Predict the 3D structure of the following.
Amino acid sequence: MNIVLLGAPGAGKGTQAKLLVDAYDIPHISTGDIFRAALAEGTPLGLEAKKYMDAGELVPDQLVIDLMNERLAQPDTALGFILDGFPRTAAQAVALDEALAASGRKIDVALSIDVEPEVIVKRLSARRTCAECGRITTADEGDTCQACGGKLEQRADDNEATIRNRLSVYAQQTAPLINYYQGKNVLVAIDGDRPIAEVWADVKAACEH
Ligand code: AMP
């Protein structure tokens, strides 16, 4: 199954993607994770992406499209994939459809996880990620990951000014993709302002439909 996760930053796409990986055993492909990993390794891709990420702006379309065309040509995507944070613009969505069509594939379901902007600002300001195991948690947990003992860190772009810019970029450039996928009859809207298990029940039902 080929799945796209839409939703503002902090809507819970990454959390639901992990549950989808467990349920369907297909790869979770997050462009944000790819850029952060590239940056941690100090590659030219990572350094280029950093310029945009730090400001909460989008990395230029062609760079993202080339990266994803390469990723989606990998054999582990043959039985399906979960796209998290891609596509984020109309140009990316069209390029994705073209690349998939060229290999006889298509998007089966686009899930829009909807959460109000003010809830997002609160969520992201408190979001912490374990530097060791990658688990996502909240500032309530303190500085140490309860799962593995690693150090809990705040993402550089999870500060209020950058969060607000990311939300405005989302509203302007990414939210229109909801209509795009609606037009293709694959969109399912899900209320993301609920406990993880409740959101997951709807995500799973949409994928099993
Ligand atoms: P995320 O982890 O999805 O919140 O992405 C973090 C940052 O990476 C974004 O704010 C953008 O700067 C960049 N980014 C991730 N995915 C994309 C994309 N599909 N198009 C452009 N920029 C992206």
Q: What stands out?
A: Residues 9, 31-32, 35, 52-53, 56-59, 64, 85-86, 88, 92, 157, 166 surround adenosine monophosphate (CB under 6 Å). The longest helix spans residues 160-174. The chain is about 50% helix and 15% strand.
